[in-house]
Specification:
alpha+beta, 7 strands, two-stranded antiparallel ribbon
């Protein structure tokens, strides 16, 4: 081989460059959705971890409060006495539970990461994305319900992911999954299916699941159901009632 042949530089042709670019574009098109899906799954796992820790805190509270779960601020004290001889007071969900067991300040004044879903885009005026099930802790003002009252703790929701409220209530709907303020804030109590149309749910026994719409009793799951029908489920009250749609096998 001559010296001229040895020193000659090799160049890609335009067609070869276009082929390489096309291959890179195809690979990027394949990988980007996979990466986005992986990130979404990671956020869902983090949300589940948050809820699992919160369920543990709620049960610690129950252990220290004669079996009563934390109450909601709009219901008032459940009348339980905790291990320190203190009466469970209003708004204990945040102002007692969070402070005592997480060592945090008032979460309504300073954000607490554990109380927020990493998939929540709007963090304005949102204290938490996890709501205590309205039906598991109290029957009314000052009328607490002990954990042992619920016959199926592994099938009875204690905390449900929502749009930004201390309470989860099945009798409301928020089809836009938006955070609301003012007179429409009640919509924030509706379950919020952030994770591929699923909502993270913690049960009284402490385990956590990602639940699809049709397995979370709420008006969004059953648009033709009355609030009374939606509430009468094992998911909410611990009843062995499998007659309602969407709860078979629970």
């Amino acid at each position: 081989m001559s010296g001229k042949s040895k020193n000659r530089k090799q160049f890609f042709t335009l067609i070869e460059l276009l082929v390489v670019i096309a291959i890179i574009a195809v690979l990027a098109g394949i990988l980007m959705p996979a990466l986005a899906s992986a990130r979404a799954r990671s956020r869902a796992v983090k949300c589940q971890s948050n809820m699992s820790q919160l369920a543990m805190v709620f049960n610690y509270y129950g252990d220290d409060s004669g079996g009563y779960l934390p109450c909601l601020d709009n219901i008032g004290g459940a009348g339980a006495i905790n291990s320190k001889g203190e009466t469970v007071d209003a708004k204990s969900w945040l102002n007692d539970t969070v402070k005592r067991y997480l060592g945090k300040v008032d979460a309504s004044k300073e954000p607490v990461e554990l109380l927020r879903c990493p998939d929540e885009e709007s963090l304005v005026d949102i204290t938490t994305n996890y709501g205590l099930n309205y039906l598991v802790a109290t029957r009314g003002v000052g009328q607490g319900i002990k954990r042992e009252t619920h016959l199926r703790p592994g099938a009875t929701a204690m905390i449900v992911e929502n749009s930004g409220h201390l309470c989860y209530y099945p009798g409301v709907t928020n089809p836009g999954n938006l955070h609301n303020t003012g007179s429409s804030y009640g919509k924030n109590r509706a379950a919020y299916f952030r994770h591929a149309e699923r909502a993270v749910t913690a049960f009284i026994d402490g385990h956590v699941e990602l639940r699809e719409k049709m397995s979370v009793p709420c008006l969004e799951s059953f648009p033709d159901a009355t609030a009374q029908m939606v509430e009468n489920t094992v998911f909410n009250k611990g009843k062995a009632d499998g007659s309602q749609p969407g709860i078979s096998g629970m």
